[in-house]
Design brief:
By secondary structure, the protein is of the alpha+beta class. Helix content is 15%, strand content 50%. The termini are far apart.
Length: 226
């Protein structure tokens, strides 16, 4: 009973608090006919991280990883003060190299395994279209808060050089961990984020998402007809 009373009390206070603001006095971070151009750098590079996890799981030695963190470009058009349509391009790369010695023994149980080396690199490119909802009433000048989803293509280029005949890059655990659709030609994304404009047309942005960069940040340009 106390829980419900607390929820009702909190809700009443939030309602009263919201009425204290005249949202027309604030400069909207996003409004109808605005166009945004975002450039973001994402973190982490899950492909490189999961390569290390996989290499450790097979007791590999001389492990090295590299790549390019997710980089994204977005154009977003405000259809109204609350809804927008977006187009994203996302690219990232990861690579790895490791050696391991198979556990092979002779008749006297002496190890006779020969070190096996595997080297690979992957480039992943995604194009997505999305729909986003923006909070219209935000009591901070030039602050834009939003959430949305997107779907699109998922293209992978792989290059593998290995002495391990049983190695299949798209069946390895490090490859599947990035997201459950990594092997599919379709990509999906759910996201929440914010933009804050320090100048009339220029600001910075932060976003958390699935199916893309987990966390990303960057700069945004706002094209607005005054």
């Amino acid at each position: 009973m106390r829980f419900f009373i607390s929820v009702i009390f909190l809700g009443a206070n939030l309602f009263v608090f919201s009425q204290l603001y005249n949202y027309d006095d604030y400069v909207k971070g996003a409004k109808q006919n605005d166009i945004f151009f975002d450039f973001r750098v994402g973190y982490p590079n899950w492909g490189a991280y999961n390569t290390q996890v996989y290499a450790r799981s097979i007791d590999a030695t001389t492990v090295s990883t590299g790549g390019l963190v997710p980089l994204s470009l977005r154009m977003e058009v405000m259809l109204s003060n609350e809804l927008s349509f977006s187009f994203d391009g996302i690219i990232n790369k990861w690579s790895g190299k490791w050696s391991y010695t198979p556990e092979i023994f002779d008749a006297d149980f002496n190890p006779i395994g020969v070190p096996v080396t595997t080297e690979y690199d992957i480039t992943r490119l995604r194009f997505q279209v999305g729909l986003n909802y923006h909070l219209d009433e935000v009591p901070v000048d030039n602050l834009n808060l939003y959430g949305g989803f997107a779907f699109g293509s998922n293209r992978l280029w792989t290059n593998v050089n290995t002495e391990d005949e049983s190695f299949r890059i798209r069946s390895q655990r490090y490859f599947l961990r990035q997201d459950p659709l990594v092997n599919f030609p379709i990509s999906l994304s759910l996201r929440v984020g914010m933009r804050y404009f320090v100048m009339d047309n220029l600001g910075f942005s932060l976003e958390a998402a699935s199916g893309g960069a987990t966390i990303s940040g960057g700069i945004v340009y706002r094209l607005r007809n005054m």
